[in-house]
From TrEMBL:
This is Restriction endonuclease type IV Mrr domain-containing protein. Residues 91-131 are annotated as: Disordered. Residues 115-131 have a biased composition (Low complexity).
Length: 255
């Protein structure tokens, strides 16, 4: 099974239970990153592409692949990097193709339900749950745009497409009901990015959503909260994390 460790935020001292991410090796075996439970998590202040990857050996075939360093977002706004044992072999994780063995037990006798003369009530139909989100691993700036587009489609926006080149408007991803800016740089997104994106959404009468790899500056975050502009941070697995209430509301809104 994937390892689980307790991670303490060095800023607010809050503890989080964190499970190692699982990645597919080229041989088909699932590999979980070997976490270090004895080491403290580190606050991510500045990102570099070279420092955001970790080499892990597959326990099934011995192949060495590079995977994103595991990160965790704390409720206080701090992004934490979870330490990994360098040079260690990954942990074999169960998958649908290779499930863990299940203990067999004798089936219990189940009493037959008593017959009912009442007419059966119609089954209540609730909202159809979303399928599991399938992220796009980010290795390039274009991957970041693809990851954002994939997430918007998962949220229910239709006709979402990625711009081949970022236009002057800063809109990297566009659909009939949404526009999005994706900042793949290693510096926090700026106030101007937030305001420009909001104006684009206002002019087109569509939702505006912002994605960034390195988070947001304080003034950009404050302005986004005023404008009710959803902000998401992308980790290198391609999984977005909501960082303000507008983003949480966007996730909760059915389409």
């Amino acid at each position: 099974m994937a390892e689980r460790v307790l991670v303490r935020c060095p800023v607010c001292r809050r503890e989080h239970s964190y499970t190692a991410p699982v990645y597919p090796c080229g041989c088909g075996a699932p590999v979980a990153l070997p976490l270090l439970s004895s080491a403290a998590a580190v606050q991510v202040r500045h990102r570099t592409w070279a420092g955001s990857w970790i080499s892990v050996r597959c326990p099934a075939c011995g192949r060495v692949d590079e995977w994103p360093q595991p990160e965790l977002g704390c409720g206080c706004g701090t992004t934490l990097r979870v330490p990994v044992a360098r040079g260690r072999t990954g942990v074999a994780a169960p998958s649908a193709e290779h499930p863990p063995p299940v203990a067999r037990t004798a089936p219990e006798a189940v009493p037959e339900p008593a017959p009912s003369t009442a007419d059966p009530a119609p089954a209540a139909r609730g909202p159809v749950p979303r399928p599991a989100f399938r992220p796009v691993t980010i290795r390039t700036a274009q991957d970041a745009k693809l990851a954002a587009a994939q997430y918007l489609r998962w949220l229910g926006f239709e006709g979402v497409r990625v711009a081949e080149r970022t236009p002057a408007s800063g809109v990297d991803v566009r659909g009939p009901a949404v526009v999005a800016h994706v900042d793949p740089s290693t510096s926090p997104a700026a106030l101007r990015d937030v305001e420009t994106l909001w104006l684009n959404g206002l002019n087109d009468s569509v939702a505006a959503v912002c994605f960034a790899l390195a988070g947001y500056g304080k003034d950009a975050r404050a302005r986004a909260d005023e404008l009710r502009l959803p902000l998401f941070v992308l980790d290198l697995t391609g999984t977005p994390r909501a960082v303000n209430e507008a983003a949480e509301q966007l996730i909760r809104t059915p389409r």
